[in-house]
Amino acid sequence: MIDLRSDTVTMPTSTMMEAISNAKLGDDVYEEDPTVNELERLAASMMGTESALLISSGTMGNLIANLIHCPRGTEVILGDLSHTFLYENGGISGLGGIHSHQLPNNDDGTIDIEKISNAIRTDDVHFPKTKLISLENTHNKCYGAPLDINYINSVCDLAHENNISVHMDGARLFNACTALNIAPDQVLANVDSVTFCLSKGLSAPMGSILCGTSKFINNARYIRKSIGGGMRQSGIIAAAGIISLKHMVNRIADDHENAQLLASGLKDIHGIDIDVTKVKTNIIFFNITHDSITQLEFVKAAKERKILLNDYNGKHCRLVLHSGISKNDVEKVILEFNKLLS
Ligand SMILES: *Cc1c(COP(=O)(O)O)cnc(C)c1O
Asked: Which of 44, 51, 223, 226 could form a disulfide with 217 if both were Cys (CB 3.0 to 4.6 A apart)?
């Protein structure tokens, strides 16, 4: 199978499996797992934050960050296409009593600064207090767009002038850094907290990292425990995460190169509608506009040809490049899609 559904399907490398079996372990709830401690130090130094915390998933990281920044009954401003709004089961509301204020995402993953500015609540007994602005980088539903650093800094300036924090859902932060050729600490210079996934392009079997000030991470440790995320000998997860950060970051450029190759191949296929200028990282969206096959039928037929991709309600298809997809695979996909639609 050539599995292009998501970069979450990546398998741990043999180096990771070796590191996992040799990892020095301890009880991380007592903060005594040396491998977890090493990963958290490494992550904090790469992100340029005081502290970092290993958590089980990106969803958990976004939830914890929202819970810390937004006391019950206060408000977070986020994009209407953001992962936190669409795909995290409404957890910030269900578990945190946080009011979400959705603003329209543009195709490049941004939310207009003016719209954010207008959405910030004034002091009034009728209004929830705005406590947080959440940005997604890269933006999954917006063609995997990396956020421009000037845009991020402008949002942070606006937020901080109003005593509001900024959280970055950086599940694919390293894809953003690769696309823009900047280091994570530069992207995050003015951001208050960030979460990024070890389990996507970085190919670890599981785990995400939440970063922020020491005070923030100390709070996060308490909340992680209360939602059942204290993981004991989690050095077996951290061991793979260390390999991710040390050895899997540089190869993300290959995924972006393969995405370009795949997108330009798809552009020439009759019945596929794609805007290749939108492809900036490892995510491709396209539509089937063929007379004799629907999108759902296309996805099914692709599966019969051993190619997996995600369909979103027949509206568009998504392909995600990752370490399990080679240049050969990309060429095969173009060939098979061509045959399928001819
Ligand atoms: C994958 C992802 C997450 C977190 O997903 P988990 O499966 O909970 O790790 C969060 N935000 C974005 C943008 C994502 O793509």
From this structure: 51
The widest CA-to-CA distance across the chain, in whole angstroms, is 62
The best mutation among 62, 82, 87, 208 to test binding of ligand 1, ranked by most ligand atoms within 8 Å of the C-beta, falls on 87
Kindly state if the Cβ of 88 falls inside 6 Å of ligand 1.
Answer: no
* Residue found by looking up tokens 């000037």 in the block: 150
Reported as half-sphere exposure (CB side, CA atoms, 13 A), residue 270 has a value of: 7
Give all strands of the β-sheet with 272-273 in edge-to-edge order.
272-273, 283-288, 316-320, 310-312
CA of residue 83 to ligand 1 center, whole Å:
7
- The first and second tokens of residue 294, run together, are 């629907």
Q: How many CB atoms lie within 10 A of CB 215?
A: 11
* Confidence (pLDDT) at 315: 84
For the Cβ of 57 lying below 6 angstroms from any atom of ligand 1, the answer is yes
The pLDDT value given to residue 314: 83
C-alpha 30/C-alpha 301 separation (Å) is 51
* Residue pLDDT, tens place only, 223-258: 999 999 999 999 999 999 999 999 999 999 999 999
Expressed in angstroms, the distance from the first to the final Cα of the chain is 22
Cis peptide bond upstream of 59, omega within 30: no
What pLDDT, on the 0 to 100 scale, is given for residue 163? 98
Buried residues in 53-83 as b, exposed as e (16+ CB within 10 A): bbbbbbbbbbbbbbbbbbeeebbbbbbebbb
Instruction: List the structure tokens of 324.
Output: 């399990």
The Cα–Cα gap between 75 and 73 comes to 7
* Burial class for 122, CB neighbours closer than 10 Å (0-12, 13-18, 19+): exposed
- Closest residue (by CA) to atom 2 of ligand 1? 171
Report residues of the chain scoring pLDDT below 50: none
What is the residue-averaged pLDDT of the chain?
A: 97
| CA atoms lying within 13 Å on the CB side of residue 49 | 27
Strands (E), 123-181: 130-136, 165-169
> Which residue, 307, 303, 310, is CA-closest to 284?
310
